[in-house]
Amino acid sequence: MLSVRRERGPAPRPASCRQCGRGPSRPGATICARCGIPFGETPRADAELPTCPVCYTTVSDDGLLPSLAGTGRHVPIAEHIAEHERHPVGDDGWLESLRQGDRIQVGRWYAPFDLVRRYLVTGVVDGGRRRTFQHDTIVNAMTQLARWGAGAASVVGDQAEWREAREAVSALLERYHRR
Q1: Residue-wise pLDDT tens digits, 14-39
Q2: Taking the domains of the chain in order of start, what are their residue ranges?
Q3: Are 97 and 109 in contact (CB under 8 A)?
């Protein structure tokens, strides 16, 4: 019996610029309208590289990110973003339900939604230079959690409000990552 072996080529990838992450502006375009480099070409050395808006990972110098499918391949940012449909970073639907405009309530405090989501995804706290007094307690709680963890021993000079904020942020973090 004669068997026919069919080779399957790689799946077609979404065309995107490795430098800015932008897709083609029209069908059949081969050069990025924003950067002027051909799609699939390595970014210029002096270029600011794109960051995934879902997981906040910046592409490497070759303009690629590791695939979330665990295959070991590296993919352009457009394909990486599409992979988040199958590999979400947390329960964004639930988190959006807590959103109040551009803010989110954590316990009895309010903080910028984007700051809290970035912390939940990355564990990195960066309140920026324009932090307002309203969310300093939440930022302080996130900083303490990042430094000592949720089950930390008593903190020297701890205040009841800080402890309460750490507990609120910890509960939010646990719920966000549970699906």
Answers
A1: 478 888 888 888 888 888 888 888 88
A2: 14-87, 92-177
A3: no
